[in-house]
Specification:
Blueprint lengths: L1 E7 L4 H10 L10 E10 L8 E12 L2 H10 L1 H9 L2 E14 L19 E9 L4 H16 L4 E10 L3 E8 L2 H10 L1 H13 L2 E18 L5
Antiparallel strand pairs: 1-3, 1-4, 2-3, 2-6, 4-8, 5-7, 5-8, 6-7
Helix pairs in contact: 4-6
């Protein structure tokens, strides 16, 4: 089970920013938690050189949905983040295809592909070679535009651990057919993928697809 929570802050932005460096002690000895990342986001769709200081993401993998739900309903630190945030979006999903590494491991244990028609989540993530940063960032706009304009995309956001060097995107698609049409037919996307391979932009990369099980959110309509 994989969860991704997006938190939006109208206020408390400095507190939220500090959590990028202070959060680690709060994720020790959590029952059922195998992998987690507290992530910043980009100010525009897809990869962005400019951070969105109002939005942060928490990515986690769990042994079971029950343990994830138990954490979200009882963990003091998670509740504190919710109390500081103006709104949040919580996505439960299960991976059915994953290749590559994130920090030396592949955190997404894949399951059988569902025959049901459900929305698909996609995570792409890379650590960029320092010497290839200029090549990468020159291609960012065309890559982001290609996905933003693709058929079937309902959500697209850049997420990342370190500015400039460790970058990722999360997107939601109406169907796997839409993803495949984009991946194999979009000329701009194919050119960028070819460049990354030929010029060896990445030290490490990962690509994963998920079935979206639930996608819910809550917004406060009061002044925090």
């Amino acid at each position: 089970m994989t969860t991704l929570i997006l938190f939006n802050f109208n206020k408390n932005k400095w507190w939220a920013f500090k959590q990028m460096g202070l959060h680690r002690s709060h994720f020790l000895n959590i029952s059922g938690l195998h992998f987690y990342k507290m992530l910043g986001t980009g100010s525009s769709p897809g990869f962005s050189m400019y951070p969105d200081f109002s939005t942060y993401a928490l990515l986690q993998t769990w042994s079971s949905k029950h343990e994830a739900e138990s954490y979200f309903s009882s963990n003091t630190y998670f509740k504190k983040i919710l109390s500081k945030a103006h709104s949040h979006r919580m996505i439960f999903m299960t991976p059915f295809k994953s290749s590559g590494l994130w920090g030396g491991e592949n955190p997404f244990t894949t399951h059988f592909k569902s025959s049901e028609i459900v929305k698909i989540g996609v995570i792409t993530r890379a650590t960029i070679h320092f010497t290839k940063l200029a090549h990468f960032w020159k291609s960012v706009k065309s890559a982001s535009n290609a996905i933003s304009e693709a058929n079937g995309v309902s959500f697209f956001k850049g997420i990342g651990e370190l500015p400039f060097i460790q970058q990722a995107t999360f997107s939601i698609w109406e169907s796997e057919e839409d993803i495949n049409n984009f991946a194999y037919s979009n000329t701009s996307h194919k050119k960028i993928v070819s460049k990354t391979k030929k010029q060896k932009w990445y030290k490490e990369d990962l690509f994963a697809r998920f079935h979206i099980l639930s996608d819910t959110g809550e917004t406060k309509y009061i002044n925090e």
